[in-house]
Design goal:
Blueprint lengths: L1 E8 L2 E8 L1 H15 L15 H31 L9 E4 L9 E8 L13 E6 L4 H14 L2 E4 L11 E10 L2 E14 L21 E7 L13 E15 L5 H6 L5 H35 L6 H19 L5 H10 L1 H24 L6 H12 L7 H10 L1 H23 L1 E6 L2 H13 L19 H24 L15 H5 L18
Parallel strand pairs: 5-11
Antiparallel strand pairs: 1-2, 2-4, 3-4, 6-10, 7-8, 7-10, 9-10
Helix pairs in contact: 1-2, 3-5, 5-12, 5-13, 6-8, 8-11, 10-11, 12-13
Length: 525
């Protein structure tokens, strides 16, 4: 193998590698020997077919396989001999003029990881803000939980439906006068304002009463999962059968027993544990942000452009997807474009901090154990159908990049925990409102999110004209989601409402509450 460096610019490298015809031919010989015992040919005993006949029968396939293996081996040797640490998979190109039996010329282009001086972890100072789980916080949590278990009771026949009421309806949907599959249903319960159905459907039920008939007009979104309904204007003939109003929930021993618990005291005990975990999540979020800010301020080095663009691409794709669900899509996207440079800066910082945390972890022996990795793989496999889970496990075991991507978040968290142990930490007791305000102030001061920042970015980006009014509540929601991320989600997330063709299919499960973004939030890493 002959190697010539053709580019060395910043973190970019490019090499011209010549793989000799002799090397490739020797690999073909090895392939012939490997398959010879299994080749069958009339007139020869199994395993006794002459090599030249095997070459004649399978020559093209053997040559292609040998070439691929020669290229893989050459790239590995190149990485070793030049002591290269690729940022991403190298781009390998075979010259178009290659012919079997001749030398192969390949171009290997890559970006290398920067050489980072031993990261300093001395002098880290952090403040741990703690929030006690007092009785008021526990009761507020129980009341929140009770509100999620909303019950409805019958209302007078003359009652006109209002926001938060429940309406029992029959419906029949059509597009251009033609009924569509799944567009008909009976006795569907719709909670007005819950956001279960196609946007605009519930709003048109305000003011109806039992016995009313109404035509509801809606437009399916452009990314609707049913191809024939994407962007379609539909009409639903609705018959109102009953209007119900929310029933008051009394929090007492009977309420606790309805949940399968022995008493209200037992419910308080469980909820106190959840509140403590939420508060711990807020504490960790605040500390992690301050830690990452200190690391970012103390270290500055070039980062591979391809890694930055890959990170930015993920962020931007997430944000564009969210913007496409806004009432004014064009205004939402225009608002995003104004902040494109800032989101790109987020990507740069996240890549830099990711590399920095990796260097710190390697320098100080931080590792993800085999047992921890097995747990990660098992947890990730649960998202697949039972019959596909073993295939996923095997895929991760065989694909180093997939395994690394799965390992990365846990590894970074372990490095953060290591740094917490090394830092000088002072402690101060605050209220929940104070710690949420402190995290929110971090956003207001231009906080740029780093790896493992803790954000759940599954929320709405409001158009510019609404942003000012929405920001305070938006950030509070984001703060709550950060805490859930940090504590490992102590309560199960509700399934999102399905945007299925039939409103009934959508209404059969409660949607998760929509969450607005913290300022300049990037897509979750």
């Amino acid at each position: 193998m002959n190697t010539v460096e053709t580019l060395n610019e910043g973190l970019k490298r490019e090499y011209r590698v010549t793989i000799t015809a002799k090397d490739i031919d020797e690999r073909v010989d090895d392939e012939v020997k490997s398959i010879a015992p299994t080749v069958r040919m009339p007139g020869f005993r199994p395993g006794k077919v002459p090599p030249n006949l095997i070459r004649k029968m399978h020559g093209a396939a053997l040559s292609a396989d040998a070439l691929n293996k020669a290229i893989e081996a050459s790239v590995r040797d190149l990485m070793t001999s030049e002591k290269l640490r690729p940022a991403l998979q190298p781009a390998v190109t075979l010259d178009e003029g290659y012919e079997t039996g001749k030398d192969a010329e390949i171009t290997v282009a890559l970006e290398v990881l920067p050489v980072i001086e031993a990261p300093s972890i001395e002098g880290l100072k952090l403040e741990r803000l703690t929030v006690p789980a007092d009785d008021a916080a526990v009761m507020a949590k129980i009341e929140e939980f009770a509100a999620q278990m909303k019950r409805f009771e019958e209302a007078p026949k003359t009652k006109k439906a209002a926001a938060d009421d429940q309406v029992i309806i029959d419906f029949a949907g059509s597009v251009d006068g033609v009924a569509f599959d799944g567009g008909t249903g009976e006795d569907m319960a719709v909670e007005i304002g819950a956001g279960q159905l196609i946007p605009g459907f519930e709003d048109q039920l305000v003011g109806v009463k039992a016995g009313d008939e109404k035509t509801v007009k809606v437009t399916f979104s452009e990314d609707y999962p049913v191809e024939t309904l994407k962007g379609a204007a539909a009409e639903f003939a609705v018959t109102v059968k009953e209007v119900k109003v929310p029933a008051a929930s009394k929090i007492d021993d009977d309420f606790a027993k309805s949940l399968g618990l022995e008493s209200l005291d037992k419910l308080k005990e469980i909820m106190k544990d959840q509140v403590e975990q939420e508060h711990n999540g807020l504490t960790r979020t605040y500390m992690k942000r301050k830690l990452l800010d200190q690391l970012a301020a103390a270290h500055d080095f070039d980062v591979p452009p391809t890694m930055v663009e890959a990170e930015f691409g993920q962020i931007w794709q997430q944000l564009e997807h969210e913007a496409s669900h806004e009432e004014d899509v064009e205004a939402a996207k225009a608002e995003l474009e104004k902040d494109r440079d800032e989101y790109h800066a987020i990507a740069v910082r996240r890549v830099r901090l990711g590399l920095l945390l990796s260097e710190i972890g390697q320098a100080h022996g931080v590792q993800v154990s085999q047992q921890e990795m097995q747990r990660l793989v098992a947890q990730a496999a649960q998202q697949y159908r039972p019959e596909d889970r073993q295939r996923f496990v095997e895929y991760v075991q065989q694909d180093a990049l997939a395994a690394a991507q799965l390992r990365a978040p846990l590894y970074e968290d372990k490095v953060v925990d290591f740094l917490f142990e090394k830092a000088e930490i002072s402690e101060r007791e605050v209220t929940r409102e104070e710690i949420e305000a402190a995290i929110e102030a971090d956003d207001d001061s231009g906080h740029v999110h780093g790896p493992g920042c803790g954000h759940d970015h599954d929320h709405d980006h409001k158009p510019a004209k609404k942003a000012a009014a929405k920001k305070p509540a938006a950030k509070k929601d984001a703060v709550k989601e950060e805490a859930k991320e940090e504590k490992g989600e102590t309560e199960p997330k509700k399934a999102p409402a399905k945007k299925a063709a039939a409103p009934k299919a959508e209404a059969e499960e409660k949607p998760a509450a929509k969450k607005a973004p913290a300022k300049k939030a990037a897509a979750k890493k």
